[in-house]
Amino acid sequence: MGLEPKGDLYIAQSDGSIAKDQQPASNPFKDSRLKTLRLINALCYALAALIVLSSIHTSSSDDYDDYQAWITNQTLLSVAPYTQYIWYAIFLLQGLFIAASFIPSLWSSALLGYTALADIPTGLEAFQKSILQAFQKSIPVVHYPALCASTALAVYSFFKWNIMSLAFSGSFASTYCLFNIIRYQLDAVSTSGFTFNRMKRWMQRRRVPDAPDENTLNDLLNDRDVSIQIQQYVFLKLPFELHAGYNLAWSVSLLNII
What we know:
Blueprint: E1 9-12, E2 18-21, H1 32-57, H2 67-73, H3 86-100, H4 124-136, H5 140-161, H6 164-188, H7 196-207, H8 216-257
Antiparallel strand pairs: 1-2
Helix pairs in contact: 1-3, 1-5, 3-8, 5-6, 6-8, 7-8
């Protein structure tokens, strides 16, 4: 019917039926080593969330929570005390990223990165070499433990130890990991067909599902295409983009303090 497949899309067959093209039918976690990596990522996420959120609530200095002190002494680079609560949103979204590795419709996405590791040779030495190469390529699931460690270091140093130079080092390292992950995701998946106008039309058709339409099949394909892309963006890209934006601003603020 003249429709070209593009990534994880649905394509129309000549008989009018709909078939999946390049759907995540294969399970990358048949390899026990990737199962272990998935569990390591989940554990790193849990530890980082615990350290960061508990550090915020048990801060050794009440100055960071004193809104009046911030109003009195603020500068252009001063961080408002209430901005610390963005960590809840960051870790909520990163929880979606971790959950994506357990969801069949998402675990084979190139944005996640497990499929890039599916052909790792057997043997410990080959595995270690492949993981090192994957880290150099900025594959998200390989960079994620380093991101968690550097984030926990930055926040704990800031709120508990009050060592701003160490907090800046951790923040800089996490920003480096984040930008590498985002760069990999931009290179790995093309989103040229995804626009906010398409998303708007998709939302309008969701509100009025029985509205008459001349191109019912094409609209169904587009709806599924946009739905998949929205799901992948929220689960796999938004967590790092939000974190990177906040972390970059926080790094500049820490540099100003130092």
